[in-house]
């Protein structure tokens, strides 16, 4: 199956429910002078480009949580190649017209992940009559480290470029450019919330779904400049785009690894004493440029994105993903819980006490509940309440045998891709729930109604 895009013809692969295209470039390879620069237009090509195999991924180092196989969600590591600013497209029929379009932004703490990971298979969406697009974008130092002489928020700029590609090309795949739903999970959800509050996204999507993320996970200029200086000092260069362009990708990944080690980075607490990432990642979107001229939460509260229908939600036990498989929660003491939270919060002892630390429950149980609220649920609640348009909220409650309702557990259900996700969901997960959740997301993309009442939290699972 051959489809004509603005840059040239592409050949996809027939699947049971339609046609799949992989590795379609939406911007030029970010190398040479285009590194640390705004995404540039795709150079056109002659002939037919083969789009039947997954393309390169953004540079990254494969990271694992001991005892847990997350490859279905985050991929198996860096697939090298300069041309990684790409999308994968699943469509029921390229010759169709005005099908609803869903554009997915993957998670990975802004340092890893790929839109071509197995769990993000678009078969179920095409079966439901929708087009799915998954996006790759710049990560880590290349995507979210502001440097003098370079563009800021490059990962978000890449996502905006991908949305413009969808606007200009999706008709050729049977999709409706006027009916686009932007959705993402974790770092992808933070991205979606930020773009909801960005003036640069006006008209690029009609609906949004924010899965375990919100608009408060952003940094001010002072914090990101401290990161840039720390990375540059470690590399022995100045924090400028010109200096960083002379370094290899491997050198930057080494510097990033050093930053991620315990004690390897600067203090990232803001003026209010909070580290907005709660230690999960040094890289977050920057407030104060043309992409995010004001805090996205403030912009949304003041009416940004009011014309966009919104779903936002969390998993019931988000933080079990990070602390459950390691066994840490079983041995965590009250003092250790306070110490861990103190690195990100000015009143760790008071917060944990309000959740029952020192009472009948274990420190681990209290810590998971408090951190789930602080990192995820509180921000999602604020996002839904601040949004001036139609808003829907959910909580995903189905518990996997070993991981509970942890961070990311909803993903195989959203994509109805349980078969690819055994390492996350375990044996015999509820197939009916996956059909239900995928149908709700598809229905929302088509009509703006997921199947439950506005403002009331629906419980999935």
From TrEMBL:
<dbReference type="InterPro" id="IPR000997">
    <property type="entry name" value="Cholinesterase"/>
</dbReference>
<protein>
    <recommendedName>
        <fullName>Carboxylic ester hydrolase</fullName>
        <ecNumber>3.1.1.-</ecNumber>
    </recommendedName>
</protein>
<dbReference type="InterPro" id="IPR019826">
    <property type="entry name" value="Carboxylesterase_B_AS"/>
</dbReference>
<feature type="active site" description="Acyl-ester intermediate">
    <location>
        <position position="186"/>
    </location>
</feature>
<dbReference type="GO" id="GO:0004104">
    <property type="term" value="F:cholinesterase activity"/>
</dbReference>
<comment type="similarity">
    <text>Belongs to the 'GDXG' lipolytic enzyme family.</text>
</comment>
<keyword id="KW-0378">Hydrolase</keyword>
<feature type="domain" description="Carboxylesterase type B">
    <location>
        <begin position="2"/>
        <end position="452"/>
    </location>
</feature>
<feature type="active site" description="Charge relay system">
    <location>
        <position position="407"/>
    </location>
</feature>
<dbReference type="InterPro" id="IPR002168">
    <property type="entry name" value="Lipase_GDXG_HIS_AS"/>
</dbReference>
<comment type="similarity">
    <text>Belongs to the type-B carboxylesterase/lipase family.</text>
</comment>
<dbReference type="InterPro" id="IPR002018">
    <property type="entry name" value="CarbesteraseB"/>
</dbReference>
<feature type="active site" description="Charge relay system">
    <location>
        <position position="318"/>
    </location>
</feature>
<dbReference type="Pfam" id="PF00135">
    <property type="entry name" value="COesterase"/>
</dbReference>
<dbReference type="InterPro" id="IPR050309">
    <property type="entry name" value="Type-B_Carboxylest/Lipase"/>
</dbReference>
<dbReference type="InterPro" id="IPR029058">
    <property type="entry name" value="AB_hydrolase_fold"/>
</dbReference>
